[in-house]
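Hi Q.,

Before the meeting this afternoon, I wanted you to have the S-adenosylmethionine prediction in hand. No need to reply - just skim if you have a minute. The sequence and ligand are here:
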Amino acid sequence: MNSDYFKTDKYWKEHINKELEEDIWINEYKNYFVGKGNCLDLGCGIGQFSKALLEIGYNVTSADISETALNKVKEFNPNIIKLDMQEKLPFENNTYDLVFANLSIHYFSDNDTKNLMEEIKRILKPNGLFIGAVNGLEGYQAIKDTAKEIEHHFWYNKEKLIRLFDEVDLNKYLLPFDILKLEKKETIRFNHKKNYWIFICKK
Ligand SMILES: C[S@@+](CC[C@H](N)C(=O)[O-])C[C@H]1O[C@@H](n2cnc3c(N)ncnc32)[C@H](O)[C@@H]1O
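Predicted structure with the ligand bound:
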């Protein structure tokens, strides 16, 4: 099943003026962010993490499917690109020192998620890092009355496809990488509590 929710830019048209809480968790993992080289912020949204990564010292490419969001990012980072993570990523092999993805890789089928992981690995330099966060399975409680299951831990809910992860899922999808750290966290986003996993991996 496909959803046009992100392709048609509905998400950012709805959220662009909402207060986005600052949950810049990367500050807690400073020693992994060396701040040198090329970084791809995949599914950057309005770029709160792109901004933090620029401040650390990376040459950041901010990538998203949403033109609405990218127009905001353009205000502080000219290096933007519109792309669809469900397609081949438009970058050469071994381009990035860091691929970063905060809460942006949970919209895809099992097959597309596995392909995306291989694509991320392809564009990372040797020893490059893949760092990000994904929503935890606990989030199912918030959608259980309306969500229709499509695949294991993958649902269609209110126009949107959503994948939630437990530790087993993460170990499966991150198999192409060396996992350096997996950590469970809690945050507040748009006034709701949610659990998420931080992952830090190396090619
Ligand atoms: C929950 S937001 C997170 C945004 C940002 N990383 C942050 O932490 O604020 C998810 C982002 O993924 C983007 N996205 C969803 N599907 C995508 C796709 N197929 N290709 C590229 N970006 C996509 C959305 O447009 C949105 O900006």
